[in-house]
């Protein structure tokens, strides 16, 4: 799958070049349009090279096609991750993380999966919980979950890992994963971050 790199930083472009092996790569120093018409493809945007408004506008136009969008940030933050994810990005990372991590990110995006820094999960969940309202009615989709699925979803919203959730309910990690799979399907979300955004938007906590 073609990788399109959007950056005005030679250092970042060179860093990505070292991480990419056996793939066509296209470089572009603007966000005025796609660097390639290849479809599907992976777009990785060096957010620190552009204004937040320019990145948001690009995400809005590019997310409509079969383009797997990733954001690389020199100074990652939970707030930025949440915003870019809501804008359609499937991945968010440190601009200069290890090449092996970039290869993992690309492999996941190849399959339409997402990637984000595990160490930021708790911060993201806590940030979203602060913005959750307590007086909104339950979403019909959330109301369709079983009692245990609701419990698991809310534990995940607290930033707990699958292992911690398993301990809380005296079940196996495999069972937690099965519950999460059902939750994602019923709520029509892809992953933990998407689940968090869903809960935040519906005032569920």
Automatic annotation (TrEMBL):
Q: Which GO terms describe its biological process?
A: regulation of DNA-templated transcription
| Pfam families the record matches | GerE (PF00196)
The UniProt keywords, alphabetically, are: DNA-binding, Transcription, Transcription regulation
Transcription keyword on record: yes
- Enumerate the GO terms in the molecular function aspect: DNA binding
Q: Which residues form the HTH luxR-type domain?
A: 138-203
**Gene3D superfamilies the record matches:** Winged helix-like DNA-binding domain superfamily/Winged helix DNA-binding domain
| Top-level taxonomic group | Bacteria
Transcription regulation: is it a keyword of this entry?
Answer: yes
Per its record, how is this protein called by name? Response regulator protein VraR
Species of origin? Zhongshania aliphaticivorans
Q: State the organism's lineage.
A: Bacteria, Pseudomonadati, Pseudomonadota, Gammaproteobacteria, Cellvibrionales
* Gene that specifies this protein: vraR
């Amino acid at each position: 799958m073609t990788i399109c790199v959007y950056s005005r930083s030679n250092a970042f472009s060179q860093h990505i070049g070292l991480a990419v092996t056996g793939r066509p790569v296209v470089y572009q120093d603007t966000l005025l349009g796609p660097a390639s018409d290849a479809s599907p493809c992976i777009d990785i945007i060096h957010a620190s090279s552009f204004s937040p408004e320019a990145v948001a506008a690009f995400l809005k136009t590019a997310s409509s096609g079969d383009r797997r969008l990733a954001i690389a940030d020199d100074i990652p933050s939970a707030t930025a991750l949440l915003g870019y994810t809501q804008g359609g990005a499937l991945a968010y990372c440190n601009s200069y993380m290890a090449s092996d991590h970039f290869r993992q990110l690309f492999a996941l995006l190849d399959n339409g999966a997402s990637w984000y820094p595990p160490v930021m999960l708790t911060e993201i969940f806590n940030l979203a919980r602060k913005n959750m309202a307590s007086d909104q009615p339950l979403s019909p989709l959330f109301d369709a979950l079983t009692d245990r699925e609701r419990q698991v979803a809310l534990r995940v919203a607290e930033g707990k890992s699958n292992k911690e959730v398993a301990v809380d309910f005296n079940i196996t990690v495999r069972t937690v994963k099965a519950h999460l799979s059902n939750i994602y399907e019923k709520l029509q979300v892809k992953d933990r971050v998407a689940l968090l955004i869903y809960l935040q938007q519906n005032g569920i906590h």
